[in-house]
């Protein structure tokens, strides 16, 4: 008995298959390298293939169960091949041919043609075009101009609405209706959809109402505020500047009714004057309520409280704009906010000639909306969504935008 046979390793019987469907059994010791096994397989299935030394490197053995490519330098034992395992002999894919120089040039040319122009190319192509100042600063300035002009429009429309309501024989009844709407609880003025979204998340309704008021009816910001102040002991404290209580509202309504009562007995001019006074009382009920968070932030910068309130009133409770106003020339002044638009201007005439606006001015709810937006501009979104006042505000905005472009 030969010595190498006494100390030889275990012999494994392996099933080898090819992609063409050939199949046979190879018996190899477990210390045989994968390269030697591959040579035996090629010699069996492709006679004469070993004459080309590249033939072995162009083929590979794959373990069928694990789908692992076997390494040529490792032995059968090292690759953990067991008796009766199935191996697959396949030919490696030939590498793709290198592209010709002409093809490379054509591809580069195509990429250059599809490449986006750089800054210099854009400037060169647009050198002869007229310049337009449409940067963000101008856009923001135009928005500020609209808000300022809108205040003037509302002031003048309020005067027109008061005169139209005074001419109505049911003026006192209309006033009572407007006064009743004015004395509604503040909960009725909160965006119901936003409130429902917060309460469905599990937040208490009263706390959700407070969060929405502090964050201008933004559900996302209100939710962040609720989470941030969840453990705050003062989270349920009422906000400053709440509407008057029911008793106060009833007293004001009764006094206003008493004032309006004798108006039916006096002449037409006196009735108009008294009704005008009544509407002035309505306006005095609605005092401007500055954003508490903006007040605190601006006062921490060193500004006086009265200056901060004036700045927020002029800039529609917008903190950044109010800060710029305080640091700048402080124009427009708070006194200028009560000035109306020129009644002879084309803009105001176009607004008054609009049928939707004309019909809306006879509705006391429209007057209420104008008064509310005048003192609390952040409530304009609620009135824009209202089925009665929304169409009037939409027409005013469209007319302004149309005339502003001409």
From TrEMBL:
Keywords: Cytoplasm, Repeat, Ubl conjugation pathway. Coiled coil: none annotated. Its main location: cytoplasm. Residues 106-117 have a biased composition (Basic and acidic residues). Residues 183-229, 289-329 form the UBA domain. One of its GO terms (biological process) is protein ubiquitination. Pfam families: UBA_7, UBL_UBAC1. Pathway: Protein modification; protein ubiquitination. This is Ubiquitin-associated domain-containing protein 1. It comes from Corythaixoides concolor (Grey go-away-bird). The lineage of its organism: Eukaryota, Metazoa, Chordata, Craniata, Vertebrata. The gene is Ubac1.
